[in-house]
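hey so i finally got around to running both of the ones u sent me last week. sorry it took forever, my laptop kept dying halfway thru and i had to restart like 3 times lol. anyway pasting them below in the order u listed, first the sequence line then the structure token line for each. didnt double check formatting much so if smth looks off just lmk and ill redo it

first one:
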Amino acid sequence: MAYAANQTAVASASGRGLSTLFADLVARFERHRKFRQTFAELNALSDRELADLGMSRSMLRRVAMEAAAEH
């Protein structure tokens, strides 16, 4: 999945300047950083704390992806 996304980013950057490509890469890195940070913080919570938030461990990846997409 990541390979396909990278290929899409490169293909969509064709014909645009390097500064735009660089800006896209920086944005992708920031989204990935936000995903990792959110996932790590949620994963550090106990099952009880997650339940208090209305979450289960199986939801962590999706919640982290949504948080990164909002960034």
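and the second one:
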Amino acid sequence: MDKIKSAYEKALERVRAMNLDQVDLSGMEFEPKGSQAAARFLREKNFDLLGELNRYPEDVRGYVRKGMEETLLQNIQLPADENTYETNRRAMEGLLALKKNKSALKQVFSELEYLFNYYTRAFEHTYANLKESFAARLEQAQEALQRQLGVKVRVDVERHPAFLEEWLRVQGELNGQYETILAEQKEKIRSIP
């Protein structure tokens, strides 16, 4: 006679049915703990990332470290503002504390700094060029409107919806180019012991 199975028994059957050689349960448990610690490190100036890592038993530290590294890498972004610069700097500090080959890591960080500086200049230059081009086009429409209404009309280019829409498109294209290079740099960091 078939008995009714509890939810626990059903869950156990599903786990047994899975190929446990392919599922690393320790990684599933401890990588998120590393991610949480790295997030805390990014928020709290005096948080001891290595001290937190060393709290875990030796056999699971690799998982915790992996979670930490991935969270720190995800937080390295193209510098859109001062907050991003600060987050990038802090994430790099954390990675420097975790990685053994510090000289190789410093070399990649140097390349990242160059990328960020170049991106910032390209971002500012692209914005200025778009604004100038849009202002020239808008000026003609503004003059026609002034003649029609007989009053002085002032239009703020940077707040004009068409300008904002165009800037978002151009910014997306620019970011796409640099995101590819940033992803390559992150892969280099992942490969450093």
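quick thing i noticed on the 2nd:
The helical segments are 7-17, 25-43, 49-54, 61-74, 82-98, 102-149, 161-191.
anyway thats it, ttyl
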